[in-house]
Amino acid sequence: MALLPALIAQLTSLKTASRLCVGYSGGIDSHCLLHALVELSLREALPPIIALHVNHGLHEDASAWATHCAAVASDLGVEFHERFASVDVGASPEAQARDARYTVFESFLDAGDVLLLGHHLDDQVETVLFRLIRGAGPSGLAGIPEKRSLGIGSLVRLFLGITRSQIEEYAVSHELDYLNDSSNDDTRYDRNFLRHDVLPLIESRWPGYRSGFARSAALSGELAASDSIQNQTEFTRFGGPYLPIEMCDTKGLHRALYGWLKELNAPLPEFAALEEFARQCRQAEGDKLPELRVGLYLLQRWRQGIHLYPSNIDRDFDISCEVGDALSGTWGSIAWQEADTGLPAGIPIKVRAPRPGEAVPLLKRPRRSIGQWLQEAGVPPYLRGCYPLVQAGDEIISIPDVGLTSACSNLNLCKGGLVPVWMPPKITFPN
Q1: Where are the domains of the chain?
Q2: 229-310 is classed in which CATH architecture?
C-alpha cells in the first residue's frame, strides 16, 4: 500500500519525536493514518503513539463518535485522549471549529511532540483552488504546509503526496471501521461543492490535474519564501554570503534557498536541481560537502550554513613580486599593513596557491598542514584551495591573516614591518 511507504520515507523525523500525536477524528483519513502508524510500529521502533480526539460538541452524534474513537484506539493498543473545544454558533462554523481544534492541539503538545494530521493530496488541491478563487497571493497558493511549528511542538502532514483514492483503497483492504460525517456530503459548504461537483468535472478533462496543482503550490511556496527569508543573509569573516540552516525548516530548505538566491539577485537554478541539493544537504554527514552550480557560482553546505561563491576562482596562481606590492586576481587580493613584527619592504617573494600535502610551523607554533591551519582559522573549504601563501626562496614565510612561519627567522623581521592581508573574491550581482 502507498501509505506505509509514505511513512517509511519519513522515519527519521518520526523517530526523533517524543510522542507521535495523531489528530484522530475517526474519519477515513485520520483512521488510516493511525492504523498505518501502528502497522509501522510493528516493524520499526517508534515513539509512543497517541490518538487525540477533539470533541466540538456541534453534532448530535459527537459523544458517540468519541466513544467509537476510544474503542478503535483501545483495539489498536494506543493511548487515547479526548479534549473538548468550545465553538460559538454563528457565522463560519467550519472556520471557528478549525481554530478551536488547533488551539486544543497546541495546548496538548509538549516539547518534542509531533502532531500528525491526515491531510492528503486532494485536500491540497481543494485548498489551492479555493484560495485561488478568493484571490490569494503566493503565501496562500502555497497551500497546506507539510511541516510547521505548533506551540512548543510541531505539526507534520505525512500524506500530502497520497491521494484520497489511495487512502480509500487502504481502508478497504484492511476492513477499517471509520466514521462518516454526513455533513461532508453537503454541497452547501464551499469545500464540499469543490470536492463533489467541481473537481470530478476537472478530472474528466484533465486526469493528471493533481500533480499540476501540487507543482503550483510548491512554486508559490518558493515565492512566499523569498519574502519570509529577507534579511537573513549572513557573512563569513571573509565576506562570503551564507544562509544559516537554522533559519530554515529543513523540509522546506529548497524553498528557503530559492527565496535567498532571489533576494541576492543571484541566478536561479532549476527547481528539481535545488530540491536534490537540499536533500543532499539534509542528509550530509561528516566531511561531505554537497555542491550545486548556480550560473557562474556554486552553492555548498559547510557546517551550519549554505555558502555561495564564484566557480571561476584561480587555484593555480604563482606570482613573483615584492613585499609591499598590491596584487589581485580571481583568487582575491593582497594588501599590506604595518605590524609590530613584520617583513621588510622590497624583498622578493612569490604569492601562490597552496599545494597538496604542504605543512609549515608558524612562529612559536608546531608544524601542521596548511589545510589544518586554514581550518583552525575558520576558512570555508571552498576558499582553502585559493588561499594565497607568501613564499621567499623555497620557504613559505606567511599564511596571510593566519601568521608568519618559522622560516621568517632567516629574514630580517623588523618593528613596523609589513604583513600581508588577504581579501577573498567578492560576490556581486546586478541590481
Answers
A1: 3-221, 229-310, 318-423
A2: Up-down Bundle (1.20)
Write the CB contacts of 143 (distance below 8 Å, at least 6 apart in sequence): 124, 127, 128, 131, 217, 220, 221
Beta strands at 291-294 and 297-302: parallel, antiparallel or unpaired: antiparallel
- Give me the DSSP letters along 222-236: HHHHHHHTTT--EE-
- Measured in degrees and rounded to the nearest 5, phi and psi for residue 320 equal -85, 135
Domain 3-221 belongs to what topology?
Rossmann fold (3.40.50)
Cβ atoms of residues 39 and 49 within 8 Å: no
Tens digit of each residue's pLDDT, the chain (431 residues): 577 777 777 777 788 899 999 999 999 999 999 999 999 999 889 999 999 999 988 778 889 999 999 999 999 999 999 999 877 655 456 767 787 888 899 899 998 899 999 999 999 888 888 888 877 777 677 788 888 888 888 999 999 889 999 999 999 999 999 998 777 777 887 788 888 888 889 888 988 888 888 887 777 766 665 555 554 666 676 667 778 876 565 556 777 788 788 777 788 888 788 888 888 887 776 667 888 988 888 898 887 788 888 888 888 999 999 999 999 888 889 999 998 888 889 999 999 999 999 999 998 889 999 999 998 888 888 888 889 999 999 999 999 988 899 988 878 888 888 999 988 877 766 55
Structure pTM? 0.55
366, with CB counted inside 10 A (0-12, 13-18, 19+), is exposed
* Diameter of the chain measured on Cα atoms: 95
Contact indicator for 185, 197 with CB cutoff of 8 Å: no
Cα–Cα distance measured from residue 220 to residue 252, given in angstroms and rounded to the nearest whole number: 13
- The CA distance from 172 to 170, in Å, is 5
Q: What count of other Cβ atoms lies within 10 Å of the Cβ of residue 31? A: 27
